[in-house]
Structure formats: C-alpha cells, structure tokens
Specification:
The protein has a single domain, classed as Nucleotidyltransferases  domain 2 (Four Helix Bundle (Hemerythrin (Met), subunit A)), CATH 1.20.120. 64% of the residues lie in helices and 0% in strands. It is built from seven helices and no strands. Helix 2 packs across helix 4, helix 4 runs antiparallel to helix 5 and helix 5 packs across helix 7. The longest helix is centred in the last third of the chain and has 27 residues. The chain starts with 7 loop residues before the first helix and ends with a helix.
Amino acid sequence: MSHIELSPEAFDALMKSNDRSIAISGACMIDLYLGLLFTVVMVEDPKVVKELLDSERHGPLSSFAAKAKVAYALGLIDEQTKEDLDYIRKIRNKFAHSPKEISFKDNPIREYCNKLSTAKRNKDKTQRLTSIYKQAVQNNIKRINKRATTELSRRN
C-alpha cells in the first residue's frame, strides 16, 4: 500500500450534494481509509486481508462498525476518533435506511452532529450541521491516514 491522501478538491467534490449523499459519502470515505489502515498493519498476505475486509463475502471486518471497533481495540485509533466514527456511522445509517427525505436538522441526526468532537465549532454556534459533519469526516480521515502513514513507515 502506498500513502493515499484525499485532495481537498476531491473531498469537496464528493461532499457537494444533498444531505443524504453527504452523509453516506462521508462515511464511505472513512470506511475506505479504515480498510487501508488495516492493510498496512496486517500480515502481508493479500488473500487473507481480502477475506477479512471483503464486504461481498461478509468478511469479519467488512462493516464500518467492525473496522472502527477493532481499530480502537488494537490501539490504532483513539477513543475520541472511535466515538466520532460511531456517530458518523449512526448518521449514515439514518440517511441510508430512511424511506423519506431527511436532513441534518432532524433529530437524532442533529444530536449526533453536535456530539462530533473533532469538528471545530464557531463561537456564535451558527455553523451549519452539514459543515460540522464534513469537518468531522475530514479530520477523522486525516487522523486515520496519519496513523496508516506511521505504520507504513515502520514496516518499510
């Protein structure tokens, strides 16, 4: 695996859409980076790694939740990141499984966004919830990528 970084332009392009697309795309990007982190720390056996991470074969680390929990259990991410990832997962699930149109303003999504600790808040608290979510996604991707880069440099 090589160092992978999502450019600000690519991130912005993925995150410009309606609330449902933003919620799902953000979680998908984090899921991708968690998978990359695992490929760096696992044994260099592509077949085994694929079996563990492969969603089509229902591998034990194929879900976002499983990746986040195991990454935390192995000390690859800290508690703050784990908690943010759990709220991001809950937000994604609300949007992904709702048959009606919903937004970041709806509860419990609003509550989950307000619990995202890695996003900076404006002092006057007028920041849009989508901005809070996007910041949390971007900041957690940076944290995960930084850890993957550290682990990769140890391996080399």
